[in-house]
Amino acid sequence: MSGYLTGVLVVLSFNIMAAYAVYLPLAAGQLNLGIAGFMAIGAYAAAYLTNELGWSLWTAIPAGSAAAGLVGLIIGIPVLRTHGIYLALATFALGQVIAAIFLNLDVVGAAAGYPVATYAAPPVVFAATAGVVLVMLLLSRTRYALYLTAVKSDPTVADLMGISVRGIQVSAFALGAAVAGFGGAFYAHHYSFIEAQHFNVLLSVFTVLYVLFGGVQTVWGPLAGAIFFTLVPEVLRASDQWRYALFAFFIIIFMALRPQGLVTASLFRVFRRKPGAAA
Q: Where is it localised (predicted)?
């Protein structure tokens, strides 16, 4: 495998992990625009543990993920009292605050950035991404996934059915933060350098676009969106300066044809009916 292809697949891996971090709260009807902030927490926490305390990669990364999840849980309880555009604004501000804290934190390099000594090779990143996808697939087959859908579809009815709406929303927000921290921790150890400027609002916005474009109705949507946003610009690279214009044109066309996203529940039902219809 060439270095170029390996680099593209590594970027795709990080995009997939970030997409699933956004997908979990979005599946419960919450738009989190601060996902880059939780990636920063996982990245800096894991990097500090391996650099300063001598932890191994295999203990530092789960710890970084847990730190991001814990912050998501603590902050999610008050933040999730808001809804809709106000929740989006609150999470947007939260991401900016987290990035600003690391930008001014001298113990992790502040604005100069923070070198990371321990290295995570591409196969390790690929395996971690496969693990995240597998966990999401397994989660989609549990009762918890049904609770997420019920809370997103109609919180009032879900509450009447005995579902703890607030508990489901907070848990989805915290789990998404943990997944973001997991991806951020691997990002820090693969690129061996992190800076707070990387975890900006554009990272959060692009990650949300992966999920909205791929679709939020099934667990495959974030995967499809991340693949599209990562690989299509590379395929269009031959068109030189027009590739971003062509890419934007493709997005407009796809959104006009499938505003609900590339992968939907009805699309799966069509494929499932075909064998029976043929018989």
A: Cell membrane
